TrEMBL record:
It holds the Pfam family NQR2_RnfD_RnfE. The keyword Transport applies. Keywords: Flavoprotein, FMN, Membrane, Phosphoprotein, Translocase, Transmembrane, Transmembrane helix, Transport. It comes from Anoxynatronum buryatiense. InterPro entries: NqrB/RnfD (IPR004338), RnfD_bac (IPR011303). It comes from the Bacteria. This is Na+-transporting NADH:ubiquinone oxidoreductase subunit B.
Length: 320
């Protein structure tokens, strides 16, 4: 996928990035309803820090700030719990934009997704804010549209759906689908994520193959483990719809700069992300493994594309 860029005013115009932002509107509104208006305050702070970080480097290159940094800021914010301290969020977005994007030369040259790198950095550096500072969700109209933030979750008696699954407990499936569960702000509502993903595919702003491949890998590997009788493995659909995996499949695996360009590599890339997520999630020390799975596979994208091109070239030589 070729990202078209145009310069206009302060930002470098990127039509695809605008489509991604539009697709995130229902997810963002749903997150405000569930978790409160603090999301907007957190988003404003994160976006300002992200733009400022990119501006410093873009100015040195005599370039404009890309609209991609707006997408990065929104996705990063939605990947956080609503109670995340502002300073932690700022550290995360600055680290992500700086070390996952600008050190590689800016947009289009980065190997890793800045939002995932930023979140993973604070997940490792300040784990208590991303693993224990969960909040309850609002229910009933107007929900969080008129409240700042939901009450903290009692982690001694309650937990996120993913943590409960590890303990052998599950929540009602309807509760998981609609998003009435604790977790990071953008990951809980499967329905709203499906709306956003459908918009991206219809507007050709994301490749459906990159969305489907990790889901196939996750569902297939989880089913095999489930049939083999491995303890602690929930229903494949429950596993896919809890935690950040579904959110990452739609908005992070499909990121055009860091994903493969050749079709065979896209399928292999996505399927392996799904399988690695299962391994980390159910056999590693981290409850959520999707972010690590994407970062691991990002490192292999260039060689995967080159490998596909080499095999195609060899096949042509054999048949000619």
């Amino acid at each position: 996928m070729v990202v078209q860029n145009k310069s206009s005013g302060f930002f470098q115009r990127q039509p695809i990035m605008r489509k991604v932002l539009i697709s995130l509107i229902p997810v963002g509104l749903g997150a405000v309803y569930l978790f409160g208006l603090r999301l907007l305050a957190l988003l404003a702070v994160v976006t300002a820090a992200g733009i400022a970080t990119e501006y410093i480097f873009a100015k040195k290159r005599n370039a404009k700030v890309t609209e991609a940094v707006l997408v990065t800021s929104v996705l990063f914010t939605l990947s956080l719990p609503v109670a995340t301290p502002f300073w932690v969020a700022v550290v995360g977005i600055v680290f992500g934009v700086l070390f996952a994007k600008e050190v590689f030369g800016g947009f289009g040259r980065n190997v890793f997704n800045p939002a995932i790198v930023g979140r993973t950095f604070i997940f490792i550096s300040f784990p208590e804010f991303l693993t224990a500072s969960w909040s309850q969700v609002f229910t009933g109209f107007p929900g969080g549209f008129v409240r700042y933030m939901a009450s903290p979750l009692d982690t001694l008696t309650q937990a996120t759906p993913l943590a409960l699954a590890r303990a052998g407990e599950t929540l009602p499936f309807s509760q998981v689908i609609w998003g009435y569960t604790s977790g990071s702000m953008g990951e809980t509502s499967v329905v709203l994520l499906l709306l956003g993903g459908t918009f991206l595919v219809l507007k050709k702003a994301a490749d459906w193959k990159l969305m489907a491949a990790p889901m196939i890998g996750f569902m297939g590997f989880t089913s095999i483990l489930k049939l083999a009788g491995v303890a602690g493995i929930p229903h494949p659909l429950y596993g896919m719809f809890t935690g950040a995996f579904f959110f990452l499949c739609i908005y992070f695996v499909t990121e055009p700069t860091t994903a493969p360009k050749t079709v065979p590599a896209k399928w292999v890339y996505g399927i392996l992300i799904g399988m690695i997520t299962v391994l980390i999630r159910y056999f590693g020390i981290f409850v959520e493994g999707a972010s690590f799975a994407i970062l691991i596979m990002n490192t292999f994208v260039p060689i995967m594309d080159e490998g596909v091109k080499y095999l195609k070239k060899q096949r042509k030589q054999v048949t000619s």
